[in-house]
């Protein structure tokens, strides 16, 4: 290929080369078609994953806890970490549960509806 030698039946080699170029072009077209399908599938998969992620929390076990249990959990959260702090200012000032009340409507109703959490 790096020499200037020309085979005697150059027209035969030229037609083989043209056929190979045409076959390569067909492969390129097929690859483009398949790549377009793959790109659409990847985009659709990403859209579905967003949908799945958005609804995944609906099946969380914490959603099945009754309000009474959640209230108890919130009460433990608002208690001092140990008995030594029981006589401290911590008892006089309840921890702020406003961030808990912003999780969802159900938790807000529990926090605002339970006087023992105030």
UniProtKB/TrEMBL annotation:
Residues 63-118 form the F-box domain. It holds the Pfam family F-box-like. InterPro entries: F-box_dom (IPR001810). Transmembrane segments: none annotated. It comes from Roridomyces roridus. The lineage of its organism: Eukaryota, Fungi, Dikarya, Basidiomycota, Agaricomycotina. This is F-box domain-containing protein.
